[in-house]
Amino acid sequence: MATLIVYDSAYGNTEKISKAIADGLAGQTTVLRVNEANSVDVKTFDLLIVGSPTYGGRATPAIKRFIDHLPANALNNINVSAFDTRISGKDKGFGIKIITNIFGYAAGRIAKELEGKGGKLAASPEGFIVEGKEGPLKQGELERAADWAKHIGQKDA
């Protein structure tokens, strides 16, 4: 299976998760930062995974532009999935809990946008935890990302 992973990363955490996902996948995998992916023909891949840090419950503007510029139905017959990096409201203060409850996270929105372009969801959107705005990643998240990748397409999304 040929897979394309497109990501944006502000502090390197989402990039690390992207590479861990690639390590967990079988087959040929191409990992590209979003600014390198704009000219790639997504139709040449069987699976497209898009990842972004969460900013105000949304993906970065660069990821949003990438998806918006995909032609209508560009992802027909292509499996898709999405992930984000996020601060967990569960372990943080009351303010973070309120913000995350109001705005949510990026992965679900990315997945819906990919489906809107014709993609078939191959795995439920997933979030990977960073300890603070700049990181580091929570202990075990790289391993969890590789494990998540191994199960893409093996179960109902």
UniProtKB/TrEMBL annotation:
PROSITE patterns: FLAVODOXIN_LIKE. GO terms for biological process: heme biosynthetic process. GO terms for molecular function: FMN binding; menaquinone-dependent protoporphyrinogen oxidase activity. It comes from the Bacteria. Residues 3-153 form the Flavodoxin-like domain. Gene3D superfamilies: 3.40.50.360. PANTHER family: PROTOPORPHYRINOGEN IX DEHYDROGENASE [MENAQUINONE], PROTOPORPHYRINOGEN IX DEHYDROGENASE [QUINONE]. This is Flavodoxin-like domain-containing protein. It comes from Candidatus Kerfeldbacteria bacterium RIFCSPLOWO2_01_FULL_48_11.
